[in-house]
């Protein structure tokens, strides 16, 4: 079954996820959707010093939004901020140095951010694909800590701030790779069996889809979405998937093409006319399962994921943190 899934997925990817796929899909885009001014609105983007995160930040800054860049590497983040300000002329670009694989750091940052800023849109873009099993200083497997737990804690911690705003949105950058994975709540930290970084990443990306669906059910006045940017030429793809990059480099999307749907979900009024909790590709909601792929999980597993992540998150919350 996994052979079938992977083959169907790759054929689909060659057709839809490449630059050609974007060019084909974009013929149906309405340019007016992005002709908006978002001055006065506040956007927080994780992993925004390069790739899709930086491309998204630029597009939002161009449209007047206040942009909060949340990055791990101070030097690269300073460079990105300078580039965004210079290219867009928007001075309202702020930098926060946070490691999304460090739960305590996320809680601390979120508490401080809530006291000092408002927030209209949260964009969970930070992610990693570590190809060997590495543990963080807290003993967490690094992909899980960054992609799943980090996303869960940051979003959960900032929900009260988002709840205060009309038209609040949360967008999570997932991956079409999640289509080859069925949710597995029995081994969140990939401790058993052979470690395959690509499949661990795909599992984390499936978990992000489930998170989005679950949040949409419980927080009705926030619009949640999760998306696949396609196969884009980013520093992360080059470093994490060198073989894939070498084979596909002439067909990959640009960073801006990868970011297009993130921007659309963040700023367009059309996006929120669609239900909350959907998975998007090229400005369209798309199925979260391949045909006949047996990747559906029982609802109990989805609820179990939320319970387990809540347990993990509470372990790292300092007593002084609010809710």
TrEMBL record:
Q: Which Pfam families match?
A: adh_short
- Origin: domain of life: Eukaryota
Q: What is this protein called?
A: DHR12 reductase
Please name the source species.
Anser brachyrhynchus (Pink-footed goose)
Give the signal peptide as a residue range, or say none if absent.
none
């Amino acid at each position: 079954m996994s052979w079938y899934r992977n083959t169907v997925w790759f054929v689909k990817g060659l057709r839809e996820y490449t630059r050609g796929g974007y060019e084909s899909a974009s013929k149906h885009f309405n340019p007016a959707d992005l002709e908006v001014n978002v001055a006065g609105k506040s956007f927080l983007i994780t992993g925004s010093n390069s790739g899709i995160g930086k491309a998204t930040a630029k597009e939002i800054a161009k449209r007047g939004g206040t942009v909060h860049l949340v990055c791990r590497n101070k030097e690269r983040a300073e460079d990105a901020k300078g580039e965004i300000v210079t290219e867009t002329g928007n001075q309202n670009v702020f930098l926060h140095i946070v490691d999304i694989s460090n739960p305590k750091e996320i809680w601390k940052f979120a508490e401080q951010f809530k006291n000092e800023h408002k927030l209209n849109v949260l964009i969970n873009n930070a992610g990693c694909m570590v190809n060997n099993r590495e543990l963080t200083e807290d003993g967490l497997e690094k992909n899980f800590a960054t992609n799943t737990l980090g996303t869960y804690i940051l979003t959960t911690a900032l929900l009260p701030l988002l709840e205060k705003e009309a038209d609040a949105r949360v967008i999570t950058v997932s991956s079409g790779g999640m289509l080859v994975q069925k949710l597995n709540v029995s081994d969140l930290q990939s401790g058993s069996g052979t470690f395959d970084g690509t499949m661990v990443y795909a599992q984390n990306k499936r978990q992000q889809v489930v998170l989005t669906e679950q949040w949409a059910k419980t927080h009705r006045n926030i619009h949640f979405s999760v998306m696949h940017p396609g196969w884009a030429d980013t520093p992360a793809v080059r470093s994490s998937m060198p073989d894939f990059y070498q084979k596909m480099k002439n067909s990959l999307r640009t960073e801006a093409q990868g970011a297009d749907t993130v921007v659309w979900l963040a700023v367009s009024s059309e996006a929120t006319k669609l239900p909350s909790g959907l998975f998007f590709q090229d400005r369209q909601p798309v199925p979260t399962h391949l045909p006949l792929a047996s990747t559906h999980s029982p609802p109990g597993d989805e609820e179990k994921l939320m319970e387990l992540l809540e347990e993990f998150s509470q372990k790292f919350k300092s007593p002084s943190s609010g809710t």
